[in-house]
Amino acid sequence: MPELTSRLLLAMPTGDSGRDAALHVKPRDIRLVAERLLCQDWFLEDVCGLDLADGLAVLYHFAHWTRPGRVVVRVMLERDKPECPSIEGIYPGASWHERETCDFFGIEFTGAANTTPLLLAERLDPAPLLKRPEQRIPRGRVWPQGEWVGPAGGHSLAEELMSICGEEGEQ
Amino acid sequence: MAILTAPVQALAAVWSMVVGLRVTITNFFKPQETIHYPRQEVPPSHLDSFRGHIELVGTDEDPAKARCIGCGLCAELCPSFCLKVVAEDLPADPTVSYESHNGADQLMPRPKFKAPPPSQAQPRKLLSYHLVYHTCSLCGLCVQNCPAGSLRFSHDVYLAGASRGRFEFDLMERLRGQAAHGGPKGGKAHA
Amino acid sequence: MSWPAADPCQGLEGDLYARVFAEGARDDTLILNMGPQHPSTHGVLRVLLEMDGEYVMRAEPVLGYIHRMHEHMAQNRAYVQFFPNMGRVDYLHALAWNWAWAGAVEKLAGLEVPRRAEYIRVICTELNRVNSHLLWWGAYLLDLGAVTPIMYAFEDRELVMDMLQLITGSRLTYSSFRFGGVLTDIDTEFVSRCRAFLKRMPERLEMYRELVTGNAILRGRLEGVGVIDQMTARRYGATGPVLRGSGVGYDVRRAEPYGLYHEFDYAVPVHHDCDCMARYMVRMDELEASLSIVAQAIDGLPEGHCIHPDAPRGKWRPPAGEVYFAVEGARGKIGVYLASDGTEIPYRVKLRSPSFSNLSLFAEIGQGTLLSDAVAILGSLDLVIPEIDR
Prior knowledge:
heterotrimer; A: alpha/beta; Beta Polymerase, domain 2; six-stranded mixed sheet; B: alpha+beta; Alpha-Beta Plaits; elongated
C-alpha cells in the first residue's frame, strides 16, 4: 500500500473550482487507483481528454454519494503513443467514456473489450479535438503554479483515498 | 389465504380501471384545448414575448430609418454568422487613434463594460442589413448587445414559405415597409 | 438445409456494429435493430438486440446518430456564443444546461449573480423540470401503450411554456441565461400566471394518480421490472431519479449546493424498490417537490437586478484555469468541465450528460428481459438522446 501512494503526486487545486483533490497518476497505476476508489464507494462521473503541450492528459472525475468533494485523477500520456489501461473491469461505466475519449483524441485504452467508435461513424485522423501545435498550452497554464503539487505519500488525504480495502492484488 | 386475497386483488384491479375510465370520460366532455389553425389563431397578446426573427427598430424622428450605428457588434456576436451589416466607412482621420482590445495581455477577472468600446461610439451610416434566418438559433445575443437598441424580435409565428429565399430578409426594406404602413404589428422591444 | 455455395446473403450482414455484435451470437437467435427510427427510443437511439423468441439475450446501444460535436463547437466560439448550444443538448431541461454553462464560467471568473437573478433562475429551472417530467410521463405511458395521458400532460405543458415564453421568448430551447444573471426580468403577468398554475396543478396530479399510478395494468408492467441495485448504479455512474429510485438520496442541489437552493425547503424523494415503478414514483414526487420550490421562490422573490451591472457582455476573457460545475438536471447530474487558457475562446469543454451514464447500464440490466420490459426499462431511464450524443 505505501508503495502506491509513494508513486502518486497529490495536487490541491486552489480556490473554488469544483475539485478538491487531484491525483497525478502514472498510466500503469490507474487500475489500482480506480480499484481503491471503488472500494471507498466513489463513482465515476466522466473521463475527459485534454490536449496540452506536454502531452495528452486523461482526467477521471470521481464523486461520492455521501462525502462532499470531487477527486480528479490526472494521467499524462505521450503524444506519439497515447495508451492508457482501461478501467472498465472496475468501473463498467468507464467503457463508454473511454470509447468517446478515443474517438475525440485518439487515445487507446488497452484491455478494453469493445473498441468500436462510440459517437463518430469512424475514427478520424487527426482526431477531432486535438489541437494544432501552436494552439496547445503548457500544463502550467491550466494547472497553475498556485496549486500545490507534491508527493502523495504521507499526506493524510492521499492515505485516506488510497486506504486498503483488501489485499493489494496482482497488477 | 390466496383463495380470499386473489379475488380481492382482482376486484381492486378492476376498480382501478373504472376509476381511470371515469377520468377519461370526464375529460372527453371538457372543451378542447387545441386551437384549430387556420380557422383560429393565437391571440396577438400571447405573442408579445415570442421570439420571431429579428427586425430593425426605427428612430423616433424617422420610423423608416434604423437606429443602427453600423458598429457590427451584432454580426460579430452571432454564433451562426447570420447577419451581414454593411456600413459606410468613416472618413480617415489620421489624428484619432483607437486602442485595440485584442492586443490586451492582461487577464480581466472582473471586466466592466459600461462604456462601449471606441469603435462603436462613432455612428456610421448603415448601407444594408441582411439576415439569413436559416441558421438563426434565436439566442438573442444581437438584440441584447446592440448599443443603439436597434434590434428587436418580431412576433411572426406563422412564418412559412415555399422557397429558401423567403427566409432571407433585407431588414432595412422591411423597416421601410413597416413605417409606410404605420408601424409594426404590435410588440415591445425585447430585452 | 444448406445454403448454396455462393451465399446470397453475403454482403447483407449489416454495418460494423451489427457484424461485431453478431459475432458472439448463438445460431438460433434473432439479431434485431431497435431503432434508430423507433417511437419508443426517445430520440435516435439504436439498440442491437439478440432475441431468443421474446427474450432479450444481449443488448447493446449504438450511439452517434445525432452527434453534432458540441464540444468542438465550444472550442470555436466565444463563451457567450455557446449558450444556444446548451438548449440543443438537452431540449427538455434546457435551462439546467444553461445554468451549468453559466455557473461554470461564473465559477471560473468569480462573477457575482444578484439574488433576484438567482431566484429567477430557480423558478425557471424548476418549471422546466416540471415540463420535462410531464413530457417524460406522457411519453413513457405512450411507450407502454396508453395514448391518452400524453395529451393531458401536454395540456399542462402548454401553460408552463406560455409562462416561460414571457421571460425567455422561447418554448423549448431556451437560451436566456447569461453570465451574471438572466436576460429578462419577470413581471406581474408572469407571477400571476405562475400562481394560477400552482393552484391548478394539485388536482391535475391527483387526476394523474387516479388515471395512471393506481392503474393495475401499469403496476403489473412496472413492478419488479428493471431492477438496478446500488452497486450497479455506482459502477456505471448513474445519477438522478435512476439512482434515487434505488434508494440513494443523492441530489446535486444538496451534495454540491449551487445558486440559492439552500434557502428553500424541498423534499428529495427516494424510493427503495429499485424497479421501474420506483423510478416512476420518484419522478411523480419530484413534480410536487419542484412545484413547492416554485411556490416558495415566487413568494419570496427579492428586488434587484436581473443581471449584474458589471457582468461581462459580448466577447471577453476569463482567467486561465479549469473548473468543474455540476447542476441537478431532470435526468441526473449535469457536469461541465471547462479549461480556459485566458483567451476569448474556451480551451476545452466537456459536457457530462446524465443520460449517457444512465444508458450505459442498460446493456447489463437488459439481459434476460422481455422485449416489452426492455421498452419499459428504457423509458424509465428517461433518456434524451441528443444529450447522450451531444
